[in-house]
Amino acid sequence: SNPTKAILEDLRGTYGRSATVEDLINHFLQLHKLLSSRKNQEHEDWTPNTIEQEIATIQRAIVEAIGTKWSGSDIHKKFLLRLTDQRARKTCDIFCLNYDTVIEASLEELRLPYTDGFRGAENAYFDPSLYDLIPGNGPYFRVFKLHGSINWIRDADETVRRRPATAVEECRRAVVYPAEQKYVQTQYGVYETLLSHFRGRLREDRPNNKLVVIGYSFSDEHINVAIEDSIRADGSNLTVYAFVGPEEDTEKQKKRFSEMAARCDDRFNVFIGQHAYISSSIEPDEWEEIKKLDLWKFENLVNLMVGGGR
Known about the structure:
alpha/beta; 310 residues; four-stranded mixed beta sheet; 11 strands; four-stranded antiparallel beta sheet
């Protein structure tokens, strides 16, 4: 709607970046909470009811924009097969911030076993204990959708469920963002459970523990804090390599990442497109070679992996 577009244009994202749809939803949820606590529950034509309707409209638009086709992709299948080729690693954790289901569909097309934390089929419910059930033989994937998914819904009693994506199109209570966790469904803690697994995995005492980040803009403070705290934790051996695309204001972007790297004793390495490398773990001549590869683009990183790169 026009009022919603006006709000989005007026919003300011963190660190001076442009506001995103998630910033808009956060704004609406905060306004909803504020108005719900007042006797006069109207503000510039917005009420708790109209806010809920607008959020539902945004949710449906996200589902429609992404599409509900259950289909994998060749590049994702190459990526997954490369991970299974590392024989010493029987369990592989994928922490995904995208709403789409391409990872799950690609795993199924490859007939690779996995769990996404939901138990059941047509009307599955979230059961985090599934992440603890690791088969004894062969590769096994655990998929954590930290920002939700287009095939998640909330039913009438507020239970988060996973349904076939085609069925979600008709559902007015789609769950496709984590902000709702703060104000609407905190008692169920789906997102907090997923984030807790993320924190735990980052802090595991594993040799050569590394987190490789592709395509994430570092605009979610919950994710950022989890990463930074894990690097700085006592006894941590976590090193992060983040490949991100350049923003409109690359100088501000470089400053933001430089400050984060300084707090992390240079174990936080950021490659900003072909513009800059933040940290000091690699030599300048190595950076000159790396920046030619454009590794912030997923397909380029996968092609490097498949070609034998580490």
